[in-house]
Input
Amino acid sequence: MSVEVVATNRRARHEFEILDSIEAGIRLTGAEVKSVRAHRVSLAEGYAAVEGGEVWLHGIHIARYDAGGHAHQDPTRPRKLLLHKREIRRLERDVMHKGFTLIPLRVYFARSGYAKVELGVCRGKRQHEKREAIKRRDEARRAEQAVADHYKGR
Output
């Protein structure tokens, strides 16, 4: 399936352990859609919360569309996510566990043309877990480089 990725939350993979992910639609205004198509989105401070049987996306920044006319919205306003009831109930159940949260991992346009967000059910990493992940990544990079050097005859 071809998708046009608009924004990714690279920091989330460092700060959180991603246990599960789910795709959700986002309710946007017309000017916001144009701004998203122009890749003017930041997911850095974003999170989602289940409130009153609905899932809301908080803290993401969609810049104002310059040619939007009088229909300017607050760039950080909460945005409703479009999910089936059983998906909402599952997310609500997952988030009830201690330390779990919903983090937006990426925003993209699906082949259908609709804006989508990939939500991750995440648990925060502790400092020593982050250090271990960096160490494993560095070791893997060194091993790959050693194999490449061996085959190049260095």
